[in-house]
Amino acid sequence: MYKYLTVLLITLIPFVSVSSVAAQSALTDFGSNPGELTASYVQGAKGNKNLIVLLHGCVQQGELLAQQSGLLALAKQKKFSLLMPQQSTNNNIKGCFNWFSQQDIERNQGESLSIKNMISTVNAEHNFSNIYIIGLSAGGAMASSMLVNYPELFTAGAIVAGIPYPCADNLITAIACMRSGPSQAPAQLTKLVKKITPVQTQWPPLSIWTGSQDLVVNPKNSQQLAIHWAQLSQSSQQPIISNYPGYKISQWQGINKRINVELIEIDNMDHGIAVAPTLENGGSEAAFVIKAPISTVLYLLDAWKI
After folding, report:
1. pLDDT (tens digit, 9 = 90+) per residue, 99-128?
2. Largest CA distance in the chain
3. What's the pLDDT score for residue 255?
4. Is residue 181 part of a domain?
5. Taking 70 as the threshold, does the pLDDT of residue 10 lie above it?
6. Where are the extended beta strands (E) located within 59-129?
7. Alpha-carbon distances, residue 67 vs 10, 23, 29 (angstroms)
8. DSSP string covering 139-192, please?
9. What is residue 44's three-state secondary structure?
């Protein structure tokens, strides 16, 4: 039922043209696929041991988002591998990953298991040293569940205009999360995650992005997620804050001074991923791909040393 009711969450979001997408290789044989997802895959150079997984937002195509954000051009330039799982309108009328459906977001179930199997399949062939995940909007919420349920898979992650897991488990709580932020305090989220994965002690570093004027997903989601992930990763209670023209970066460090969590808040930006079209491979403007003083993808690849 939830797969079709999701339309209520995003009735104001327009459809995106896919006419300009360059065809990529389809990943067709990746084992069990209970979420009934498809995927495109760009294989990197043989000696490049980096894989990035990109999860698109509602009414988006993963390949087109990779192109518009600059990630596809960077994958070809830097020779890393790029996996782009794709939702279908058969699963969700607006093509959203079902980030609020328990049958799709719990460990080894539904769409999350399909994505895990995609990653495991390409990793078995190429033995990646580093696996990263980037998710936008509904893809960000799904990335959040992937990082909680399969933390051992990922070197680091980025959640862009997303929602912390587990914020919602049905349509009503999903709408509440989007509008008002998590009903749980960060400490409650941390307690819930520790209950889900009680033996996990190491957590992937997380980069969290939000626009200060996001009218689709309340920025409180990103702010609460940052505090929660800092608690989960046993980081400093107070972040180091750096202000730049048009955006602010707050970073929480671990005992070894490693940045475990960061929150990038972009002034006057609505719902989407940030691009800087004047920079080489800085991306191009489109629906939910927004011109900003910083490129999300360029920043992440620099931080991840890819």
Report:
1. 999 999 999 999 999 999 999 999 999 999
2. 48
3. 85
4. yes
5. no
6. 81-86
7. 23, 11, 24
8. HHHHHHHHHHH-GGG-SEEEEES---TTS-SSHHHHHHHHHH--SS-HHHHHHH
9. coil
Q: Which domain holds residue 73?
A: 25-303
DSSP E strand boundaries for the chain = 25-26, 38-42, 50-55, 81-86, 130-136, 156-160, 206-211, 240-244, 247-253, 259-266, 273-275, 289-291
Domain count, the chain: 1
Q: Does residue 127 lie within any of the structural domains?
A: yes
Q: Which of 90, 105, 89, 195 is nearest to 141 (CA)?
A: 105
What is the token pair recorded at 156?
A: 């680091």
The two three-digit tokens of residue 285, written as one number: 């403007």
| CA geometry: angle 294, 206, 119, nearest 5 deg | 105
Beta carbons of 219 and 210 less than 8 angstroms apart: yes
| pLDDT at residue 6 tops 50 | no
Q: Give the model's confidence band at 179: pLDDT under 50 very low, under 70 low, under 90 confident, else very high.
A: very high
Burial environment of residue 195 by CB neighbours within 10 A (0 to 12, 13 to 18, 19 or more): exposed
Instruction: Report residue 228 as tokens.
Output: 């929660």
pLDDT tens digit sequence for 36-66? 999 999 999 999 999 999 999 999 999 999 9
Q: Is 152 exposed, middle or buried (0-12, 13-18, 19+ CB in 10 A)?
A: exposed
DSSP 21: P
Cis peptide bond upstream of 166, omega within 30: yes
What is the reported pTM?
0.92
Confirm whether 5 is domain-assigned.
no
pLDDT at 120: 97
| pLDDT above 70: percentage of residues in the chain | 92
Within 13 Å and on the Cβ side, how many CA atoms surround 33?
15
Distance separating alpha carbons of residues 187 and 228, to the nearest angstrom? 6
Write down the pLDDT at residue 12: 34
> Which residue, 185, 134, 125, is CA-closest to 157?
134
The CATH number of the domain where 221 resides is what?
3.40.50.1820
